[in-house]
Amino acid sequence: MKPKSNFDTSGMTTLNQLKSFTDTLPTQSKKMPVLFTSHGNPMDIPVSRSDREFWQKLYDLGINLQKNYEVKAALVVSAHWCTKGTYVNVSHSPKQIYDYYGFPEEYYKVYYRAKGSPEIAHEVKKIVPSVSETTDWGLDHGAYYMLMHLFPEANIPAFQMSIDYYAKPDYHYELGKQLKSLRNKGVLIIGSGALIHNLPLASQKLYKNDKTPYGWETEYDAWIKKQIDSRNIVNIINYENSHKLSKLAAPTPDHYVPVLYSLGLMDQDDEIKYFFGGEPTIPAFSERSFIIER
């Protein structure tokens, strides 16, 4: 794939021009919420909702979303699709990608068969011409094993947009802002990552069957929640330098930057409501998750 790393907003200088890009999709009376959610960790893939509180919370949330909104499709910005440039998957039937290795056989017998939504994926390209279309991806574990609890019947079409791994944090936030019009078209946009995700530090303990947090996770979780609650977007975007623990919490951008897409999609009169959070349950990891809605 030819990478494109520059964010092109040419031809989008007026609201009328921006509106013309998405006129092919009907406008709905209710603006769709936005999610930022953890996708758990691969160890929990075969665990049932009755044994995993987070899975149950996603399930309950999915019921409420479908009850209160006409969800046309889910667009997932997953921490596990990182590219040079930004891509959107336009497949009719996105493949399920088992992008984890060395697990027991039952981890590869979990199936999620949602259809794609090429027509809405094309709208992403229309809104942001610098985004490239591809069929080379599908639904990775940052998407499907969160979606399999959110929409277990796979009745909501789903597709992914990649993360430009080499882009600056403000690129991701601004790209989220550009996609706001999709909220009026029945598109549920989901940033799927983790506000704290340090795999090397987590592995050091988990390989010894030690699930106790290091201790610093609570301090950072409280700080990042305060920034989100106060809508301190500057500190959230400049996370690498905003807090002394940032490099421990997010040593790589992949799991953190999905929150920038979610917050970029937020309007001033939206509310932020946490549907899962609290004390970290495993080391160097956070499952704090929220919904943005009017």
Could you characterize the architecture of this molecule?
This protein has 294 residues and is α/β, with parallel strands linked by helices. 31% of the residues lie in helices and 17% in strands. The protein is built from 11 helices and 10 strands. α2 (53-68) packs across α4 and α5 packs across α11.
Helix content: 25-40%
What characteristic shape results from the CA principal axes?
globular
Percent of sequence in beta strands: 15-25%
- Average pLDDT confidence is 91
Distance between the termini: 38 Å
Which stretches of 5+ consecutive residues score pLDDT under 50?
1-22
Order of helices and strands: HEHEEEHEEHEHEHHHHHHEE
Structural class: alpha/beta
User: Could you give a short account of the major beta sheet?
Assistant: 6 strands, mixed
Strand order of the largest sheet: 7-2-8-1-10-9
The gyration radius over C-alpha positions equals 18 Å
**Tally of DSSP helical segments:** 11
- SS elements, strand count: 10
